[in-house]
Amino acid sequence: MEEFLNDLQESFFTWCNNVVKDHMEREGTMLKRWRPRKNPDGSYDLVCRLIARDEIASKLTVPIPEEYHELLEREYFITHPPDEDDESQ
Strands across the sheet with 44-51, in order? Predict the structure, then answer.
């Protein structure tokens, strides 16, 4: 069982897990990696790199609800700059 610092953090990771699970079940894919990405307008997306059964990589981008934006500003981007290029991996 994961340990979370607070209810908002737990809610955010639960939301992320549900987004990934929903897409994987529909598409028969496996998760390679995921991360939040800050957009120029201040909004956030959940960016997932997925591998399909035939091993073709794809990218899923889902807008992150506004209720999690402050959490991401405060905790996530301390070690992950918003301009990190995920296309190279």
Answer: 30-38, 44-51, 57-63
Please spell the DSSP secondary structure of the chain, one letter per residue. Answer: ----SSHHHHHHHHHHHHHHHHHHHHHT-EEEEEEEEE-TTS-EEEEEEEE-TT--EEEEEEEPPGGGHHHHHHTGGGTS-TT---TT-
Q: Which residue has the higher pLDDT, 22 or 5?
A: 22
Single pTM value for the model = 0.73
* CA–CA separation, 55 and 37 (whole Å): 24
Amino acid at 89: Q
Structure tokens that stand for 45 in this block = 């997306």
Q: How far apart are CA 86 and CA 47, in angstroms?
A: 9
